[in-house]
Write a structure and sequence with these properties.
The complex is a heterodimer of chains A (about 110) and B (about 110). Chain A has about 110 residues and is mostly beta strands. Chain A has no helices and eleven strands. In chain A, the strands form two sheets. In chain A, strands 2, 4, 5, 6, 9, 10 and 11 form a seven-stranded mixed beta sheet that branches. A four-stranded antiparallel beta sheet of chain A has the order 1-3-8-7, with no helix packed on it. Chain B is mainly β and about 110 residues long. Chain B is built from no helices and eleven strands. In chain B, strands 2, 4, 5, 9, 10 and 11 form a six-stranded mixed beta sheet that branches. Classes of the chains: A mainly beta (about 110), B mainly beta (about 110). Chains A and B meet through β4, β5 and β10 of A and β5 of B.
Chain lengths: ~110, ~110
């Protein structure tokens, strides 16, 4: 049981480049989430998917898009990266939206 | 006012000490409460849920005060391995997916 996995672990982008962060869970959870974590700001919700086939905006969705590919996978796409998107990105999953299980994170640097 | 507020610390305590963290939340409709632990450069992990009657897990005790809208975490007999950031988490529950994380309180246990 791998839990929640994320790829890549680290990424450096130039301003304007695009990339997709991948997340998968093997716990048969209904809900999946993308957060970013910045110093002094705590975890902020970017997008979430309450169930397969649905996605909703969180607190800071601008500059991001998501795809809930199937029950297991939830990807986050940066279409045109900006330095303000330098952060640590965590994917999480849960059965009903409360206790959340996190992936190891992706550290993204945008130059 | 932030939805969930924590003293950022750091709390520097000697091994064996008892330390307590408080967290306040602004939404009186909040229904579920948790403490997560986050080690440096790692993902958050659930430490314990917080129940209305208070609950204990070994050296850790969590309390909820709905009237004053705060939760607390007490750690007895601190170990070096308790050094981490402790995140207060509040959920509206009822199937609603919104979970709000505090910015965390950093604990450093000193030999």
């Amino acid at each position: 049981n791998a839990g929640v996995t994320q790829t890549p672990k680290f990424q450096v982008l130039k301003t304007g480049q695009s990339m997709t962060l991948q997340c998968a869970q093997d716990m048969n959870h209904n809900s999946m989430y993308w957060y970013r974590q910045d110093p002094g700001m705590g975890l902020r919700l970017i997008y979430y998917s309450a169930s397969e086939g649905t996605t909703d905006k969180g607190e800071v969705p601008n500059g991001y898009n998501v795809s809930r590919l199937n029950k297991r996978e939830f990807s986050l796409r940066l279409e045109s990266a900006a330095p303000s998107q330098t952060s640590v990105y965590f994917c999480a999953s849960s059965y009903r939206g409360e206790t959340q299980y996190f992936g190891p994170g992706t550290r993204l640097l945008v130059l | 006012r932030k939805e969930v507020e924590q003293d950022p610390g750091p709390f520097n305590v000697p091994e064996g000490a008892t330390v307590a963290f408080n967290c306040t939340y602004s939404n009186s409709a909040s229904q579920s409460f948790f403490w997560y632990r986050q080690d440096c450069r790692k993902e958050p992990k659930l430490l314990m849920s917080v129940y209305s009657s208070g609950n204990e897990d070994g050296r850790f005790t969590a309390q909820l005060n709905r009237a004053s809208q705060y939760i607390s975490l007490l750690i007895r007999d601190s170990k070096l391995s308790d050094s981490a950031t402790y995140l207060c988490v509040v959920s509206l529950g009822g199937g609603y997916q919104k979970v709000t994380f505090g910015t965390g309180t950093k604990l450093q246990v000193i030999p």
